[in-house]
Amino acid sequence: MLEHTLDAQRGVLYLTPHGPLAAEDFQRVAAEVDPLIADHDLNGLMIAADKFPGWSDFAALSTHLRFVREHHKHIRRVAIVSDDSLLSTLPSVASHFVAAEVKHFPSADRAEADAWLQAAG
After folding, report:
1. Whole-Å CA distances, 78 to 40, 59, 108
2. Sorted alphabetically, which InterPro entries does this protein's record hold (predicted)?
3. Which pTM does this prediction carry?
4. β-pairing, 101-105 with 12-17?
């Protein structure tokens, strides 16, 4: 399950996975975010996770990749908030595939990550 909260006023989307990601997770997020990004880009996206949960099946992976492809140009910054070593390397990999600036923050620095996202506006 992928918990999501959209702060439309500040232009920040918060994602927190609580288990393997499913295709429906990305469809729900897109349904809420797409109307907003039709008018203007998001300042940021925060992904807060203890560890990367993986995907429930190949359809979930495919939907996740499609979601990134269709949305990355509408997000200025991405903050990865985690102490997981795999997720801490994500910014260096993601920078080759997404237009957004991507930065890792330790879990204890969530408030700093949030301030960094809001400063993108």
Report:
1. 16, 24, 17
2. SpoIIAA-like, SpoIIAA-like_sf, STAS_dom_sf
3. 0.89
4. unpaired
Spatial contact of 105 and 91, defined as CB atoms under 8 Å apart: no
87/60 Cα distance (integer angstroms): 18
- Is the CATH number of domain 2-118 3.30.750? yes
| pLDDT, tens digit, 9 for 90 and up, residues 25-67 | 999 999 999 998 888 889 999 999 988 898 999 999 999 989 9
Helix pair angle (23-37, 58-71), 10° resolution: 10
Would you kindly state where each structural domain of the chain is located, as residue ranges?
A: 2-118
Q: Six-digit token pair at 66?
A: 């499609």
Q: Which residue has the tokens 């979601």?
A: 67
